[in-house]
Amino acid sequence: MIIEKNLKGFDNKLLYDKLNYPQCSCGTCPRFYFNSHHIGARGSGKTYTVCQMIKHYEKHKITRDGVEYKLRKHLISPTIQANEIYESLDSLNMKKDAHDNYSDQLILDKIEDKQAEKAQYEKILLYKRSYEKFMKTPKSEYEKLYETDLEIFNLLEEYDYIHPKDFKRGTS
């Protein structure tokens, strides 16, 4: 028989903010971010399973805070030519993102691309928050908002006060 005893001083509840990663909109997928290893004999369905999962994400979209995240794949495989199934992926740019030779520089370049993309998404989210704050502010308070938070106006002016839903990827 196991008896559970509370230790004195360890009865406090931990408070923390959960990270808000982009997630699949279907609501049933594993939460991002995760690693996946597919190991099996030749012809056992490894590539098919991965492509099927990617097709699911293409169909159901990845979102966070109302912003849709574009799927972007990087394929590095010496057997690209032998697997025509990769052509079924709408989000895989075979000319730009499919490589049959690995190199450390290739990985570093892909990481740099992702960092630039992340900065762009963060700017979109900042714009969305700024736009919402501006829209909630009564017109009589604009001057005060301008004095206390000039950055909101600079960001909104940079994009001509467009609605966040009209904020397109690549706008920067």
Tag the structure with descriptive keywords.
172 residues; mainly alpha; 5 helices; 40% helix
Characterize this entry briefly.
With 172 residues, the chain is mostly helical.
Description:
40% of the residues lie in helices and 7% in strands. It is mainly α and 172 residues long. The chain is flat and about 70 Å long. The protein has a 3-stranded antiparallel β-sheet with strand order 1-2-3. It has a two-stranded parallel ribbon with strand order 4-5. It has 2 domains: 19-101, no CATH class; 103-172, no CATH class. Helix 3 (104-136) crosses helix 5. The model has no long low-confidence stretch (mean pLDDT 86).
**Can you summarize the main beta sheet?**
3 strands, antiparallel
Individual helix count: 5
Element-level helix/strand string: EHEEEHEHHH
Radius of gyration: 23 Å
For the record, the count of structural domains works out to 2
How helical, in percent, are the residues? 25-40%
Q: Strand order, biggest sheet?
A: 1-2-3
Distance between the termini: 64 Å
Shape field: flat
Which structural class best describes the helix and strand composition? Answer: mainly alpha
- As a percent range, the share of strand residues is 5-15%
Average of the residue pLDDT scores: 86
Sequence stretches where pLDDT stays below 50 over 5 or more residues: none
Question: How many β strands by DSSP?
Answer: 5
